[in-house]
Design goal:
The structure holds 2 protein chains of 2 kinds. Helices cover about 0% and strands about 55% of the residues of chain A. Chain A is mainly β. In chain A, the strands form 3 sheets. In chain A, strands 2, 5, 6, 10, 11 and 12 form a 6-stranded mixed beta sheet that branches. In chain A, strands 3-9-8-7 form a 4-stranded antiparallel beta sheet, with no helix packed on it. A two-stranded antiparallel ribbon of chain A has the order 1-4. In chain A, about 35% of the residues are buried. Chain B has a single domain, classed as Immunoglobulin-like (Sandwich). Chain B is an all-beta fold. In chain B, strands 2, 4, 5, 6, 9, 10 and 11 form a 7-stranded mixed beta sheet that branches. A 4-stranded antiparallel beta sheet of chain B has the order 1-3-8-7, with no helix packed on it. Chain B contains no helices and 11 strands. The chains are: A mainly beta, B mainly beta. Chains A and B meet through strand 10 and strand 11 of A and strand 4, strand 5, strand 9 and strand 10 of B.
């Protein structure tokens, strides 16, 4: 069974600085998707960034980028120029082509003014 | 370690039927959340419970109801099912402290197909 691990329950970053959230996963499949979701207090799940495993190029979305290391099964999220609105829970998630979807336990990010 | 258990894992129902999804949180967790994820969509928050009381309500249709029982497990009841209800339904549990943002552990989901 696939598993997703986020080893940092809490992280903090100074406004305008850069922070990296870690995620590792375990799977025997070669094709899959990886996601980072942001969850503000409203409980919504907002897609931050998505990566297809067959793509070697790291996904980037404005201030958000990932470092995808397929061999190491690592998928970290880098947030540049952190803003107060980035404070939230961040969930790393894995989805196989067979639609099996697995979430990590989350990392709580605080942004300090 | 025990994780969040959802049952059933797969469910096929016909239109206008009723479905009940169950969620068993991690032991000692007092909060349960329900999410609905349609094909190719982000998970949508439906409802949450803290200490057996509804704590937050999201985009849950009136045809759906949910409750949390004395043993903290939760059930999502869905009536008059529509084709658009076909989705993956996630349950997550957490131990709610004084902070509003808490680690949540997700179950593997129940895939509901309405035909």
């Amino acid at each position: 069974a696939q598993t997703v691990t986020q080893s940092q329950p809490e992280m903090s970053v100074q406004e305008a600085e850069t922070v990296t959230l870690s995620c590792t996963y375990d799977t025997s499949e070669s094709d899959y998707y990886l996601f980072w979701y942001k969850q503000p207090p409203s409980r919504q799940m907002i897609l931050v960034i998505r990566q297809e495993a067959y793509k070697q190029q790291n996904a980037t979305e404005n201030r958000f980028s990932v470092n995808f290391q397929k061999a190491a099964k690592s998928f970290s999220l880098k947030i540049s120029d952190s803003q107060l609105g980035d404070a939230a829970m961040y969930f790393c998630a894995y989805q196989s082509y067979g639609q099996n979807f697995v979430f990590g336990p989350g990392t709580r990010l605080s942004v300090l003014p | 370690a025990a994780g969040v258990i959802q049952s059933p894992r797969h469910l096929i129902k016909e239109k206008r039927e009723t479905a009940t999804l169950k969620c068993y949180p991690i032991p000692r967790h007092d909060t349960v959340y329900w999410y609905q994820q349609g094909p190719g969509q982000d998970p949508q928050f439906l409802i949450s419970f803290y200490e057996k009381m509804q704590s937050d309500k999201g985009s849950i249709p009136d045809r759906f109801s949910a409750q949390q029982f004395s043993d903290y497990h939760s059930e999502l009841n869905m009536s008059s099912l529509e084709l658009g209800d076909s989705a993956l339904y996630f349950c997550a549990s957490s131990l709610l402290g004084v902070q509003t943002l808490t680690l949540a552990f997700f179950g593997q989901g129940t895939r509901l197909t309405v035909v």
